[in-house]
Amino acid sequence: MSIKFGLLALVVGALALSVPASASPALGSSQEVAKRAAKRGAKDAAGDAAGDAAKKAAKNAMAPDALDLNTATEEQMKKIGFDEETTKKVVAARPFTNLEDPKIKESIPADVLTKLEGKINVKPAAK
Questions:
Q1: How far is 115 from 68, CA to CA, in rounded Å?
Q2: How far apart are CA 98 and CA 112, in angstroms?
Q3: How far apart are CA 10 and CA 57, in angstroms?
Q4: Beta strands in 1-127, from DSSP E residues, in sequence order
Q5: Which of 13, 8, 3 is nearest to 45 (CA)?
Q6: Region of poorest pLDDT, from 33-42, 68-77, 105-114, 118-127
Q7: Is the separation of the CB atoms in 117 and 99 below 8 Å?
Q8: So what's the pLDDT on residue 115?
Q9: Cβ-contact 43, 35 below 8 angstroms
Q10: Of 57, 89, 76, nearest to 119 (Cα)?
Q11: Whether pTM exceeds 0.70
Q12: How far apart are CA 73 and CA 90, in angstroms?
């Protein structure tokens, strides 16, 4: 979304530069219009980054009843939607450090991970 808005801001800014200030007195000079458009684009980009960080934090938050991939039995994994092959890959790849662990992404298809967001977690292995 921010890329689209940024491009829009550039187009608006470019168009504003070609319009004489006398043609749009309510908007101000073309340079002022371009500056305002660029500022809005930067603010939206920052807002999107903050929103993405919040989404990631929510995704990684552990639900109290979420299934821990480090300790789950094969039966438990199948019960929440893993097929036989994925279950075996998960068991063989243990232990995991977190949900972003590359071994998880290699073991579990992306569509399954998306479907199970909030239903699975990874608690660090006890030392």
A1: 16
A2: 16
A3: 32
A4: 67-68, 120-121
A5: 3
A6: 33-42
A7: no
A8: 94
A9: no
A10: 76
A11: no
A12: 10
Q: What is the pLDDT of residues 35-64, one digit of tens each?
A: 776 677 666 666 677 777 666 555 555 567
Q: Which two tokens stand for residue 116?
A: 């199970």
Residue 107 neighbours by CB under 8 Å, 6+ apart? 86, 89, 90, 92, 93
Q: What tokens were used for 48? A: 């999107």
Token digits for 82? Answer: 């893993």
Q: Which residue has the higher pLDDT, 34 or 80?
A: 80
Question: Hey, what amino acid is at 124?
Answer: P
DSSP 73-94: -HHHHHHHT--HHHHHHHHHH-
Other beta carbons within 10 angstroms of residue 23's beta carbon come to 9
Token pair of 65, please? Answer: 């009843």
Please identify which residue in the block is written with the tokens 């219009």. Answer: 33
Residue 111 scores a pLDDT above 90? yes
Q: Would you say 56 and 117 are in contact if contact means Cβ atoms under 8 Å apart?
A: no
User: Distance (Å, rounded) from C-alpha 46 to C-alpha 52?
Assistant: 10
DSSP helix/strand/coil, 101: coil
